[in-house]
Amino acid sequence: MTDIATAGHDDTTPKSLPPSLEALLARLNPEQLAAVTCPRPYVLMASIPGSGKTLALVSRAAWLIRQGFRPTQLTALTFSRKAAEELQDRLARLLGDKGRGTWAGTFHALGAALARQYATFLPRGRTAAFAVMDRDDSRRAVKRLIRDLELKEDPGELTELLDRAKRANGQVLAALPDPTREALTRLIPAYEAFLEMRDALDFADLLLVPVRLLENHPDIRRQLQTRWRHILVDEGQDLDLLQQRLVELLVLPVDGLASGDGTSPGLTLAADDDQAVYGFRGGSADYLLRFTQIYPGATVINLGENYRSTPEVLVPAGRLIAHNRRRLRKALTTQNPSGPVPEVRRFASDKEEAPYVAERIAQWVAEGLAPVAVLARIGAVLTPIARACERRGLSVRVAAETPLVERREIRDLLAYLRVLVNPNDWSAFERVMGVPPRGIGAKTVAHLQEGVIRQGVEVTLAAAARHHKGLAALLTLLATLRGRLAGGPAATLRALIEALNYRAYLSRRGEPDETERRWSHVEELIELADGWECCHGGDIREFLDHLVLSEVDESHVTSYQVIGLTLHSAKGLEFDACVIAGVEDGLIPHYRHAAFDDVEEERRLFYVACTRARTRRLLTVCHERMLWGRP
Fold first, then answer.
1. Contact indicator for 161, 179 with CB cutoff of 8 Å
2. Do the Cβ atoms of 52 and 307 come closer than 8 Å?
3. What's the CA gap between 136 and 142, in Å, rounded?
4. What is the pLDDT of residue 261?
5. Helix axis angle, 489-500 relative to 469-482, nearest 10°?
6. Per-residue pLDDT tens for 228-275?
7. Run of H or E residues at 540
């Protein structure tokens, strides 16, 4: 793995302003230019939807390089791998080879890289080869532990509360009802023991570990601050407490006092507090309101010109969000030409709503406005509209399909890769022992787990293999495949699939159509591995981290005429035409979030939905709506 703290420096500093960057700066509006060229070390780009904040952030990075920073001295933290890659690509296009070398990635990717690099400081039982437990792994673990501990609480609720408790250092416990708090108090140590036994970290650990590392080891903190001289953060309104703390540790000097003398790293944070809609994940707009207190001398520059929407779309959205009290006051303007006035339609029921919406969408598609987005607070609202659109012959995708890495066949193959790079990954071993079936039943697995707890994975399996032919054959296969790891993830996957005769295994498990669908997912995984190797090399552990820490990519939805999205999943997207369905009390705002503390976030969420459209927007309201089989 690349040493992210001591990677080779590019000592070449641009001596003249590249024509492409000069032309770009000339195109920026005054507010963007002020943010890009601000000499102050701490800058908050307070943006609005469609204001070009990504362009401003990339331009800021290019301008810093022009001022003498090496690309390797900049680090960009984003909330999606796609956004990170886009930033790197834009820098390279602006500055050529002189723009290459900036580290860009998600917070979790940074956390995983730091955890592996400083593995000697990991929690007990973890090694540099630790497995990353994704959210599905965590849900399965919690479900098992609930059964073992004979708890009665809902597994989904406890999984969410467990993650929140870890991120908030247990502070969430005090506000819980007594039975839930007692259940969580019993679950947490059992869950941590579960992770330790499997040499694993979960998503919360990928933030906890680097925060504790930097808090407890000032020498490492100084090393990273010397390495990274300016931190750029996108979507700053979505930072939870751990992510906020990690940024502070990377930027503020060890004595805790911000300085403007250049001895500590600088920070540029692009954010829109009016789009802070992830409170349930710990995100908070309050961080932005306190920015100048956390970073004394910080400059806040408003990016208030919208380049996306017509005035008719934008002005009502501005009036809506103005009702929120806890927010940064920003201009909300556009010079785009006028367009149609947004519609609001009322219906007696969703049976009337669906055909009307489908008809209107068909009209928009005929005008060349596809894809048209249908947005709703909950997915159940989308179903009747999607069916009505399909009856009209429109191609429809409701973006709630299972991501590739969560599909059974992909999890099978990734479990093998996990075991190959980490023989102590017991969670992955439990899966591969049954793929394909080897006569290793539930009783045998339970017996093996007892041994794993006492003496570890490798010793237990080696001893058991002497008396179990199926297990012995599995260990022999794994030993053979480990000898081929140097070939990279794609070659290893191909060898694994051939050794397992995996396509035949899939055909024995389902109908021909189902087999072909699952096999197409396997081929997609191999294509991903080939693409990864071309860009990043052949380290299988890094490839696994890349897959587990990647977000669902909806970039291909433009091949459909109608896209169904929840309000949360629509964030960051834009469409010529949008329908917002179910604008009814109880849905928008959602009845579970009607309290004062939550209603401002519900208003922000509706504001996000209202600002996705460029020229057309339709809002629908139903007097009666059928949800989950009942009105």
1. no
2. yes
3. 10
4. 53
5. 150
6. 999 999 999 999 999 999 999 999 988 765 545 567 899 999 999 999
7. helix 540-548
Are the C-beta atoms of 68 and 14 separated by less than 8 Å?
Answer: no
Q: What is the pLDDT of residues 307-355, one digit of tens each?
A: 999 999 999 999 999 999 989 988 899 999 999 999 999 999 999 999 9
Q: Widest CA span of the chain, in angstroms?
A: 78
User: Nearest Cα to 540, choosing from 392, 359, 414, 360?
Assistant: 414
For 195, other C-beta atoms within 10 Å of its C-beta total 22
Interatomic CA distance for residues 525 and 626, integer angstroms = 39
Closest CA to 619 of 628, 627, 609, 629: 609
Q: Which amino acid is at 234?
A: D
What's this model's pTM, rounded to 2 decimal places? 0.84
What backbone phi and psi angles, to 5 degrees, belong to 256?
Answer: 85, 0
Which one-letter DSSP state was computed for residue 627? B
| Helix and strand totals (H; E) in the chain | 26, 16
Distance, CA of 488 to CA of 539 (rounded, Å)? 6
HSE-CB for 246 with a 13 A CA cutoff? 28
Tokens 């329908």 sit at which residue?
Answer: 579
Yes or no: say if 276 and 228 are a contact pair by the CB < 8 Å rule: no
The enclosing H or E element of 63 equals helix 53-66
Q: Both tokens of residue 95?
A: 């500055």
Q: What is the pLDDT of residue 294?
A: 93
DSSP-assigned beta bridge partners for residue 301? 45
Cα 560 to Cα 570: distance, rounded to the nearest angstrom: 15
Residues 6+ apart with CB under 8 A from 406: 134, 136
Residue type, 498: E
Percentage above 70 pLDDT, the chain: 93
Q: What are the DSSP E strand ranges found in 12-96?
A: 42-47, 74-78
Mean pLDDT of successive 10-residue stretches along the chain, which has 631 residues = 43 47 88 96 95 92 92 91 83 81 91 95 92 87 92 88 84 82 93 92 95 96 95 94 95 70 85 91 85 94 96 96 92 94 96 96 96 93 93 86 78 94 90 91 88 88 92 93 86 93 88 83 88 83 84 57 92 95 91 72 95 97 77 55
Q: Is the Cβ–Cβ distance between 397 and 562 less than 8 Å?
A: yes
The H-assigned helical ranges of 252-349 are: 286-289, 291-294, 311-321
Residues 114, 82: Cα–Cα separation, whole Å: 21
Do residues 91 and 62 lie in contact, with contact meaning Cβ atoms separated by under 8 Å? yes
C-alpha angle 580/586/591, rounded to 5°? 125
- Work out the mean pLDDT of the chain and round it to a whole number: 88
Using alpha carbons, list the distances in angstroms from residue 63 to 19, 363, 429, 593: 13, 45, 49, 43
How confident is the model at residue 119, as a pLDDT? 95
Cross-strand partners of 619: 344, 580
Distance CA 403, CA 395 (A): 20
510: closest CA among 494, 521, 496, 525?
521
Within 10 angstroms of residue 393's Cβ, the number of other Cβ atoms is 8
Q: What is the pLDDT of residue 14?
A: 38
Query: What is residue 134's predicted lDDT score, i.e. its pLDDT?
Result: 84
Q: Which residue has the tokens 């630790």?
A: 130
SS3 assignment, position 226: helix
Q: Where are the alpha helices (DSSP H) in 233-326?
A: 241-251, 286-289, 291-294, 311-321
Helix (H) or strand (E) holding 269: strand 266-271
